[in-house]
Design brief:
The protein has about 200 residues and is an alpha/beta fold. The protein has helices spanning about 10-35, 75-80, 105-110, 115-125, 185-190, and strands spanning about 50-55, 65-70, 90, 100-105, 140, 155, 165, 170-175, 195.
């Protein structure tokens, strides 16, 4: 009967080889286990929405009358603003005593992460003479923009549509309460009284 050459090895040597093999298997299994057990940490990336404010010389309260009109959709704003913006635009009368801001509704602004304070400061900068070329613009994180100081002569029209009647103090009231009604020009015609900035 022939003996297996391994069985002919001395016992201490066989034990040494067996221990080295066992240790190698143990390290390999620990390495594989550690790779699979690695915890995935949630991303700590913060999204910062950036945009531009006017330079300091235009980032100040407007001294004339400001009239704010709200529209419901980006498409309405884009049409009213003649393709310059989907969110807001400003225009003024020839003598620059009245500035008109046309701004999309709050739901649209929120869906694009645009704070109300940012829109006002940007557009009032246009009321103060900052041109559509946005020269010397200041890049800012929109979330950090504080509310501007607004003129005392500020009028906010109710959102359109629907048509809403307002009192001489610009407070909404039911149109059915009116005995004599006057229909204003449609927005597209009325906007020709002032020029967009």
């Amino acid at each position: 009967m022939k003996l297996n050459p391994r069985s002919q090895q001395s016992t201490p040597r066989r034990k040494l080889v067996s221990r080295v093999f066992s240790i190698a298997v143990l390290f390999l299994s620990l390495a594989i286990g550690a790779a699979h057990a690695r915890t995935v940490r949630p991303s700590t990336t913060t999204i910062r929405y950036m945009n531009y404010l006017p330079p300091a010389e235009y980032d100040k309260p407007f001294t004339g009358t400001v009239i704010i009109r709200r529209l419901e959709t980006e498409e309405e704003i884009e049409r009213h603003c003649k393709g310059r913006s989907k969110f807001a635009c400003a225009g003024h009368t020839a003598e620059r005593k009245t500035c008109y801001l046309t701004i999309v509704n709050d739901n649209v602004l929120r869906s694009h992460h645009i704070p109300w304070a940012f829109v006002l400061r940007h557009e009032i900068g246009h009321c103060n003479g900052w041109t559509e070329k946005h020269e010397n613009k200041r890049k800012v994180q929109m979330i950090d923009v504080g509310m501007p100081t607004l003129t005392k002569d500020l009028w906010v029209l109710p959102a359109y549509p629907p048509v809403v009647c307002v009192t001489p103090e610009w407070k909404p009231e039911p149109c059915s309460d009116r005995k004599n009604t006057v229909t204003a020009e449609p927005m597209d015609k009325a906007s020709k009284a002032y020029s967009l900035i």
